[in-house]
Structure prediction request, 521 residues.
Amino acid sequence: MELDLKKLKLRSINETLQNLDRKKNERDFKIINPEGSHALCAGLTQDMNINIKGHVGYYCGGMNQKANITIEGNAGTGVAENMMSGKVHVKGNASQSAGATAHGGMLIIDGDASSRCGISMKGIDIVVKGSVGHMSGFMSQSGNLIVCGDAGEALGDSLYETNIYIKGKVKSLGADCVEKKMDKNHIKKLKKYLKEANIKNLKAENFKRYGSARKLYNFKIDNLSSY
Amino acid sequence: MCGIVGVYLKTKKFEKDLGKILSEMLNNMESRGPDSAGFALYKTENEKNYKYSICINKLNFDDFRKEIIKKVKKPTINQFSDHVILITSDEPKKVIKVINSEFTNISLVGYGRSIEIFKQVGNPKDVVKKFKLETFSGSHGIGHTRMATESAITTDGSHPYSTGEDECLVHNGSLSNHNNLRRELKKQGNIFNSENDTEVAAGYVSNSLSNNKSLKDTLISGLKDLDGFYTFITGTRKGFAVVRDEIACKPAVIAETDDYVSIASEFQAMAHLPSVNSAKIFEPEPGIVYSWGN
Prediction:
């Protein structure tokens, strides 16, 4: 089914997709003329394939469960924010806070993602084929952030247990973020993610892994005199 | 939150459509700034005369006309709702003095050889309509839709700010050191008409340009001197520049083709631009100055 944002209101398109009649077999949708609209395909809860032809605004695919959303263009702030499951694939670039706070599912960005990619992520797997901006992985809690290009300043600042894999250069690491050893298990997992994102020209062994030094986890008794 | 937009034409192809392009961009940024709007356009340079953009507020146009023709040399006066464009060969020093001393409750919003500025409180769609922005042509222009945060919803609190000849600036964000900077700039002889933080940024740019620094260098040093959150678009007679602070919380998207460069807070403001889908679309990186023209 084709949904045209020049003819239909954003709210009516979202309502159609959110309230899909499970008895009908309609599972493939094409959205045309998105023209940078915000919150397109937010709050979907069922299996379906959506192809968006063009650039989207903020929070596209936010809170997604199960749906498979492809954006043939750029995405604004907070694409796939708080996603629970399913897949969001951005064929262009993504703006700041891509995949923010997301609990699950997979976000693939073919281009670059700007600052704060994966901020506070809680279990999502994010693959960025280009580079990410500053403060990416800030306070990220679990899941995997994989970047085939470079990372900006303060990567992984104050992170918890997210695994960050970077192929290119890291401008600087944030507080408590350190480079960690890649063991066989990490390489195996990374290979799986690269395969899922259809990346064939890069070897998992050439990535570096970053994670938490876990020094900010507990109060240090040595600091008691400061209070 | 505010919405900012700007267009710089690299060729003459869309010069006649500049007003139309800008008005659609401003209309689409209503959601980011519903309380006031304004815009500045650069037209062909007028070598003999100066153009003064004046907001006459509630003053009757005929009363203004009667008075001003006595005070300035051979003026041409064009009315656009509660704004007038006064064209005269008289120097800014004299005209500014006339406006400030002979009239009450009117304000000069900008002047120069090429710039025309209009700004007013109200919904952007109404503001754009009342000044007939669609009918304007020009080489480049910038605009603003305001959601006031730190100063009152007044004409003086609206953007663009123009603090020098053919200069203007719009801002999305807030500055935290504007009071100190205003005091310093006042000491150096700069005049401010409001308590607004953005006016200080505009004054900072004017001050630096008057010390013969380029627009690009001015904005580079501004990264150090202006503390706060911002995406700025600044215009000069022949130039146009964009800069975001290093934290880059305030959004901006640039679309560039062979014919134009456009910038907006959100892509949706530019979705209607000619051949935008084949344009190079990117976000200006934090702390990097992007400029076109001189």
Q: What stands out?
A: The longest helix of chain A spans residues 184-196. The first strand of chain A starts at residue 2 and ends at 4.
